[in-house]
Amino acid sequence: MDEAAFDRANLEGDRVRKAGPHAVAARYLAARKRLVVVLSTGAELAVPVDGIEGLAGAAPEDLREIEVTPAGLGLHFPRLDADVYVPALIEGVTGSAQWMAQQLGRAGGSVRSERKAQASRENGKRGGRPRQRDRAPLEGRGR
Where are the residues of the annotated region Disordered (predicted)? Predict the structure, then answer.
């Protein structure tokens, strides 16, 4: 990166930082399994780490070391080589669209309700799940 590009990046960082709150500090609360981000406004944002892509399932010792980027727009976890974009976190975006959809699907599939139980009983009375019909193999797929 040349000096002009570096200056442009710094100007852009200043512009974004002035547009909204940014991180001034961050810490991991192991007892609550939460990432706490202290914002420039004085507010603190506490987010469950298991809901953040790149941090979910990480060991507490790996989550304790957090670096706030100079502009306050990012958090870096060196032991995990993971980064979190603070403005997205403020908006509730905790990962890529695909990762978040996967988490939502996992949560929805594990929900137990009387309605799902009733549907399962009715399906069982009709012989259970329908079998997948034999289909001709798609072209280009060997069988």
Answer: 103-143
pLDDT (tens digit, 9 = 90+) per residue, 84-95?
999 888 888 766
Q: Are 78 and 26 in contact (CB under 8 A)?
A: no
Taking the alpha carbons at both ends of the chain, their separation in whole angstroms is 51
The two three-digit tokens of residue 1, written as one number: 């990166």
Is 22:71 a contact under the CB 8 Å cutoff? Answer: yes
Amino acid at 31: A
Length of the chain: 143
pTM for the full model? 0.60
The residues near 65 (Cβ < 8 Å, ≥ 6 apart) are 77, 78, 79
Beta-carbon contacts of 9 under 8 Å, excluding residues fewer than 6 positions away, are 1
Angstrom distance (rounded) from CA 64 to CA 30: 8
Instruction: Tally the C-alpha atoms within 13 A of residue 68's C-alpha that lie toward its C-beta.
Output: 19
Beta bridge partners of 65: none
Architecture of the domain spanning 3-93: 2-Layer Sandwich (3.30)
